[in-house]
């Protein structure tokens, strides 16, 4: 790997992304790699620069430095192509990197993996927009209470960091009601009311929440978790168990596996890999081996 495109999120991991990204850049260049800086003022700019570099074959691989959001961005650039993705994990949660067995907050170890050039093929989930554009995710898509909280928190400018998310939880809990869903799993239609719906290509999100604990990155299937209607006090007792993955033993929790998933609900905006993904309805399909990761 001699020509690398590098995208750094300087604010990842409480602003440690800049430091770890600069360290990775220094190490890569010291090892003789030609590094093209694809970073931009925002994600849209980085996507545009990255897509141009991949389309022009100006890079042999794309490397992202940051958290799950940067892996998400890198997946948009590399999924469905033969250009591999390298990850310098520098975020707060780093769920995707950790579950893939990649170094976390260790630029030297990450660079060593990247320069070794060995790759691992992993699945990615894809939706196609009305304009015909593909949008991908590699970790977990949230489309229930967690997505409602994310949407609320992202509408606030203050406070910053985890406190904004915690306040959004407090704001939503008193008014939250079970959400009517229509799910279509490999053609089978299911109607239900649920507190939580998550589609996992991988097992974890949100900084260690193992919401779909048995999901595998390379099994050609999506794990669809549904926490059916329960009283809010019971939901408060069940939800913390997501950190250990033991919530799946609750009688109101159902996990199904499918290759294609359609989610329908009114007023819900889904989040994938921690990023705003799009409003429901969404049609998702798993694409086996769509992403090559330098691992």
UniProtKB/TrEMBL annotation:
<dbReference type="GO" id="GO:0004143">
    <property type="term" value="F:ATP-dependent diacylglycerol kinase activity"/>
</dbReference>
<keyword id="KW-0067">ATP-binding</keyword>
<dbReference type="Pfam" id="PF19279">
    <property type="entry name" value="YegS_C"/>
</dbReference>
<keyword id="KW-0460">Magnesium</keyword>
<dbReference type="InterPro" id="IPR017438">
    <property type="entry name" value="ATP-NAD_kinase_N"/>
</dbReference>
<dbReference type="InterPro" id="IPR050187">
    <property type="entry name" value="Lipid_Phosphate_FormReg"/>
</dbReference>
<dbReference type="InterPro" id="IPR001206">
    <property type="entry name" value="Diacylglycerol_kinase_cat_dom"/>
</dbReference>
<keyword id="KW-0418">Kinase</keyword>
<keyword id="KW-0443">Lipid metabolism</keyword>
<dbReference type="GO" id="GO:0008654">
    <property type="term" value="P:phospholipid biosynthetic process"/>
</dbReference>
<comment type="similarity">
    <text>Belongs to the diacylglycerol/lipid kinase family.</text>
</comment>
<keyword id="KW-0479">Metal-binding</keyword>
<keyword id="KW-0594">Phospholipid biosynthesis</keyword>
<dbReference type="InterPro" id="IPR016064">
    <property type="entry name" value="NAD/diacylglycerol_kinase_sf"/>
</dbReference>
<dbReference type="Pfam" id="PF00781">
    <property type="entry name" value="DAGK_cat"/>
</dbReference>
<dbReference type="InterPro" id="IPR005218">
    <property type="entry name" value="Diacylglycerol/lipid_kinase"/>
</dbReference>
<dbReference type="GO" id="GO:0005886">
    <property type="term" value="C:plasma membrane"/>
</dbReference>
<dbReference type="GO" id="GO:0005524">
    <property type="term" value="F:ATP binding"/>
</dbReference>
<keyword id="KW-0547">Nucleotide-binding</keyword>
<keyword id="KW-0808">Transferase</keyword>
<protein>
    <submittedName>
        <fullName>Diacylglycerol kinase</fullName>
    </submittedName>
</protein>
<keyword id="KW-0444">Lipid biosynthesis</keyword>
<feature type="domain" description="DAGKc">
    <location>
        <begin position="1"/>
        <end position="131"/>
    </location>
</feature>
<keyword id="KW-1208">Phospholipid metabolism</keyword>
<dbReference type="GO" id="GO:0046872">
    <property type="term" value="F:metal ion binding"/>
</dbReference>
<dbReference type="InterPro" id="IPR045540">
    <property type="entry name" value="YegS/DAGK_C"/>
</dbReference>
